[in-house]
Amino acid sequence: MLGILALVGDKWSLLVVGQLRDGPLRFGELHRAVRGISQRMLTLTLRKLERDGLVSRSVHASVPPRVDYALTELGDSLLGPALALGEWAIDHRTEIAANRLRYDAR
Amino acid sequence: MLGILALVGDKWSLLVVGQLRDGPLRFGELHRAVRGISQRMLTLTLRKLERDGLVSRSVHASVPPRVDYALTELGDSLLGPALALGEWAIDHRTEIAANRLRYDAR
């Protein structure tokens, strides 16, 4: 299970997959949507997701060429677990922040 | 959502939480159960999980003292999403491995 979780168990991959839930986005749109990610980290994350077959990259012939990133069928199947984890994190962030303060104060 | 996912979106945290699903374990038991984790990384991961309030650490008065790690109620609530992600990874590992070969060969 170890090497497998390494596939998806990094926050950037999960966040990028989550942001593609409603359809394809361009690089710049993803960069704005995933707050805090650097251009370099987004490039690396998209390449990893494309290599794993979770995201597809399409180049559209226009001037300038438009490049879209979209979930593949496999990427779509990760949406459920990825969003569940994200929801859990949002639901419990206050409790976790309080736990940290308590731990650091002792 | 970013800082929050950082809480849980690392594979070691998810793997340790998953291993505690059936009850408390000692350090050595966890070390054997989470394959590939170093003692140092397990120590750091447990400290982070304890700080976040996901895992509790109990010292039992015996000779030598026994130290157990267990999920808190909060940690227990993460089990569902963590195991769902792990199951997804296991279910799709062959497909992902094939995608990587295809990507690297092109």
From TrEMBL, chains A, B:
InterPro entries listed in its UniProt record: HTH_HxlR (IPR002577), WH-like_DNA-bd_sf (IPR036388), WH_DNA-bd_sf (IPR036390)
PANTHER family noted in UniProt: TRANSCRIPTIONAL REGULATOR, MARR FAMILY, TRANSCRIPTIONAL REGULATORY PROTEIN
SUPFAM superfamilies: Winged helix' DNA-binding domain
Domain HTH hxlR-type: start-end pairs: 1-97
Keyword Cell cycle: no
A Gene Ontology molecular function term of the record: DNA binding
Organism of derivation: Saccharopolyspora elongata
Gene3D superfamilies listed in its UniProt record: Winged helix-like DNA-binding domain superfamily/Winged helix DNA-binding domain
Protein name as it appears in the record: Transcriptional regulator
Superkingdom: Bacteria
Keywords from the named record: DNA-binding, Transcription, Transcription regulation
Pfam family, any one: HxlR
